[in-house]
Amino acid sequence: MDMPQPVRTGRLPVPEGKSGCPTNLTVELLGDRWSLVVLRDVMFGGHRHFRELLTNSVEGIASNILAARLSKLVGAGLLTRHDDPSHRQKIEYRLTEAAIELVPLMTQLGAWGSRWFPTSPELSIHAQLLARGGPDMGERFMDELRAMHLEGRPQRADGVLAELTLAYERAASTS
Amino acid sequence: MDMPQPVRTGRLPVPEGKSGCPTNLTVELLGDRWSLVVLRDVMFGGHRHFRELLTNSVEGIASNILAARLSKLVGAGLLTRHDDPSHRQKIEYRLTEAAIELVPLMTQLGAWGSRWFPTSPELSIHAQLLARGGPDMGERFMDELRAMHLEGRPQRADGVLAELTLAYERAASTS
DNA sequence: AACTTCTGATTGCAATCAACAACCGGTCGT
DNA sequence: ACGACCGGTTGTTGATTGCAATCAGAAGTT
Predict the structure, then answer these.
(1) Which chain A residues contact residue B23 at CB under 8 A?
(2) Euclidean distance between CA atoms B72 and A58, whole angstroms
(3) pLDDT tens for residues A104-152?
(4) What is the pTM of this model?
(5) pLDDT tens digits for B127-166?
(6) Could you give the C-alpha distances from B48 to A124, A173, B10, B44, B84, in angstroms and in order?
(7) CA of B104, closest CA in chain A: separation in Å?
């Protein structure tokens, strides 16, 4: 049970004339074939550039769809664009606080999917670990994402993300 | 931290040749404009018939889309169809266990939406209460849904659903 | 300077999906 | 017999998606 927290709301732009139901607004924003998949790859896969997302995605998103989703997510306030010093026309996409707070949602999404679908073990290990880690692990993960995406710090070697990646590699190598 | 639970998986049919990532499979199933909204109305609104869902929906779904979603959700194993004794061509839709276990996901969805969008108070009260109730309230709600949708028992007057409905009505009347 | 590769996209086209309105046969209470 | 109600279906239109090819600017290589 958590303390009564102040209701901080209204940070995200809203399409006009829409139902004020939070479920509906979230579905309108994220309820499509690719938005959450792209966010998953940025969040868990550590991919921050167009090419990385295009090439390393398990599902094979088309480039026009990726471009459209990225600009939609930037417009919605879930991603920010940054110049990459290494290449003048390289663009780095970073998660915002709003996107980072999707971690509990992504956790539930993965947990439900791996509970009810016949998923491949190496791809569901992320979801299983995160689900079993509970809110505590979720909080640590979110702090880690804040350090990396909001403060520009490098990934820590002993963090949740490293743990998830290691578990994935172990599972992938033994199959 | 919960006990190592047996991995029960593979109850839901899967489109062939798809990525085995649980996030992706869930997004493929529920990641559209209406599926989660329909489930929300069955779950929280207590609507179980076509006309109820068509008429009482806040967002105004079209009848062909509703029909398509209902039959998709039945095919996917999230809803079941039942004859209604009161009217020979009336059909009752009930949640399955898989759908009931979406409660934590719906909770996170609503919590995130009411945290980040400027939602109307009466429509977000459900989400806020459920989020503050924590996993405990979620479990009670799921048990209640099981009693109603799987065992055919009537809604209990002192349950979570009644509490949510009451809170909504209070909020709606004072605005 | 020329060539190649890499960057984040854009374009054209076909197929699918969503929104809207009209309509349908069967069922029910009166 | 009548009108309201039941769960849908049909047809149309416009938007979205998926796919392949292509683009111009920037950087590295020779």
Answers:
(1) 36-37, 40, 106, 109-110, 113, 127
(2) 25
(3) 999 999 999 999 998 888 888 999 999 999 999 999 999 999 999 999 9
(4) 0.91
(5) 999 999 999 999 999 999 999 999 999 999 999 999 999 9
(6) 33, 47, 26, 11, 10
(7) 7
Of the candidates B14, B40, B118, the beta carbon closest to that of A23 is on: B40
Residue A125 corresponds to which tokens in the numbers above?
A: 């290990």
What is the spatial distance, in angstroms and rounded to an integer, between the CA atom of B2 and the C1' atom of D15?
46
DSSP letters of chain A?
-----------S---TT----HHHHHHHHH-SSSHHHHHHHHHTS---SHHHHHHH-SS---HHHHHHHHHHHHHHTSEEEEEETTEEEEEEEEE-HHHHTTHHHHHHHHHHHHHHS---HHHHHHHHHHHHHHHHHHHHHHHHHIIIIIS-PPPPTTSHHHHHHHHHHHHHHT-
Distance B24 CA to C26 C1' (A): 41
